[in-house]
Each structure stands twice: as structure tokens, then as C-alpha cells.
Specification:
Elements (H helix, E strand, L loop, with lengths): L10 H6 L4 H11 L3 H10 L2 H6 L10 H13 L1 H13 L17 H23 L20 E7 L8 E9 L2 E9 L8 E8 L10 E7 L7 E7 L8 E8 L10 E5 L4
Antiparallel strand pairs: 1-2, 1-8, 2-3, 3-6, 4-5, 4-7, 7-8
Helix pairs in contact: 5-6, 5-7
Length: about 270
């Protein structure tokens, strides 16, 4: 006998393809050791195609409540029978013409009927809302990364004393600022050194640093490089970029000379 709720809480989501990859793999591992769930998959595997065939139908407004009530009745027949008796005693249900309970069905047919009722309820909710939401394992969509601002900065040699230059295209996203940096005429760094790119704030100096590193890079034999870096430093505190030449010794502080600075707007 299955050591879990019957039907399994992930069965409907597996049939309709709404489980995330981790839950799908977990349920498939479970299928390898559960004959009841394997039988359920075989019995109901054609249900998704059946429910999506044909033209759209306008659903009654109370269909969701009636469907879930019927599922509850099938899963808890004793409680439902007691509720019916109480209703008859309070004259809320007629006594005459009541149908006799159906004869006991084989266990396999009862189990299949319950599986079908639950799967149908899930499908009906999907057609009403447009999305199948699993109560036990809701599938959360990742928050989209949207561009709030996009700026382009021109980088030049300090005091314009040198041929090196660069262009930085910066996009503000939900995970920080993405910098796409292109540099030219910047010779490869000497051995044991590297170029470091920074977000720089007002008043930055060696004595009173006000900058945040966002990554390092080197250039090719033609003095060119194209890199993408990401940093979370706020724009209002660190609005511009800079590149310095630093010792490649793991020290995160700026000690080297400036190589590229942001050209002031004209």
C-alpha cells in the first residue's frame, strides 16, 4: 500500500507538466518504487489532451466550489453521509426519491475514480484561471530583470595625456549595474599586474578612497579588450567609472595609478 496520500499530491502536477524540474525528478524517482502511482499515471496520462481538446467553454460560476465539494465527498464518504443525515433531519433535503448508495466497486475502480476526480478538479481550475497552481508546491516565477536606466560613459587617459580610451555602456538591472566595457590602445599589463575597473564616487583619492571594485581584466596584444562586469554599488554614490593598474596580489584596495577616467560631459 502506498505510504502517502492517495492520490499523491504531485500526481496531477506531473501529468499536466506544472512541476518544477526538481519536483519532477523527485516524483519520477518515487514512481520507480510506487506501483500505485505508476498505475495512476497510466490511467490518467491521456487526460491533459482530452481536457484541452475542443473549443473554449464558458464555465458556470459555481463550478469550482461544486467540483471541490464533490472531491471532498468522494474522499470522505463517512463525513459526507453524516452531513446528509443532519440535513435531512433539519428538513433541508427531501426524504422521498433518494437514491440508494451504489454497490461497492472493486478497489482498483474506486482508486481510479478518485484519481480522475482530483485530476479533473485541477484541470477545471486551470481553465478558469489560466494557470494550474499546486497548493503544496507552488511554482514561483523568477522576478524579471528590467532595465530602469541606461547610460554610456566615455573613458580617457588622465589629463588626456595618453592614447588609451574606452567606452562603458551601463544598464541598471534588478541585480545591479551591468557594465559592458570596451577599451583600445591599452597595452597588456606588465607581469604581476592587472587592470582594475571601479565605480567611483565624489572626492575619491588615495588618502580618502571612495570607490568600489567591479572586476579586473587584461588586454590583448593589440591593446584591446571587451568585458562585461556587474556591481551592486548605488548610482547616486558612485556615478562614474575608473580604471587603474594594480599589483595582482589579491589586495582589494586601490594602490596603483589611474589609467582611464570618465570624461566629464561637455
Amino acid at each position: 500500500m502506498a505510504e502517502h496520500a492517495v492520490p499523491h499530491p504531485d500526481l496531477a502536477g506531473y501529468l499536466f507538466g506544472t512541476l518544477n524540474p526538481d519536483l519532477t525528478a523527485e516524483f519520477e524517482d518515487h514512481l520507480a518504487n510506487c506501483a500505485a502511482c505508476r498505475a495512476g499515471v497510466v490511467d490518467l496520462r491521456g487526460l491533459p489532451a482530452l481536457l484541452t481538446a475542443g473549443p473554449p467553454t464558458q464555465m458556470p460560476v459555481d463550478l469550482r466550489e461544486r467540483t471541490l465539494a464533490r472531491v471532498h465527498t468522494d474522499q470522505h464518504p463517512a463525513a459526507a453521509a453524516g452531513s446528509a443525515r443532519n440535513q435531512r433531519r433539519s428538513n433541508r433535503l427531501p426524504h422521498v426519491g433518494a437514491r440508494r448508495p451504489p454497490a461497492a466497486r472493486p478497489a482498483r475502480r474506486v482508486r481510479t475514480r478518485r484519481l480522475l476526480a482530483v485530476a479533473t478538479a485541477v484541470a477545471v481550475l486551470a481553465m478558469i484561471t489560466g494557470v494550474i497552481t499546486m497548493t503544496l508546491h507552488p511554482r514561483r516565477r523568477p522576478a524579471p530583470i528590467t532595465t530602469a536606466t541606461s547610460v554610456t560613459l566615455t573613458l580617457v587617459a588622465p589629463d588626456h595625456n595618453g592614447p588609451q580610451r574606452g567606452v562603458a555602456r551601463i544598464e541598471q538591472t534588478a541585480v545591479g549595474r551591468v557594465v559592458r566595457l570596451q577599451v583600445q590602445d591599452l597595452p597588456p599589463p606588465p607581469p604581476g599586474q592587472r587592470y582594475v575597473c571601479w565605480f567611483v564616487g565624489p572626492g575619491d583619492s588615495l588618502e580618502r578612497p571612495n570607490r568600489v571594485t567591479i572586476g579586473s581584466f587584461t588586454t590583448d596584444s593589440h591593446g584591446q579588450a571587451e568585458v562585461t562586469l556587474t556591481g551592486a554599488a548605488p548610482t547616486d554614490r558612485f556615478p562614474i567609472l575608473g580604471v587603474t593598474l594594480e599589483p595582482d596580489d589579491g589586495n582589494p584596495q586601490r594602490r596603483g595609478r589611474k589609467i582611464l577616467v570618465t570624461e566629464p560631459p561637455t
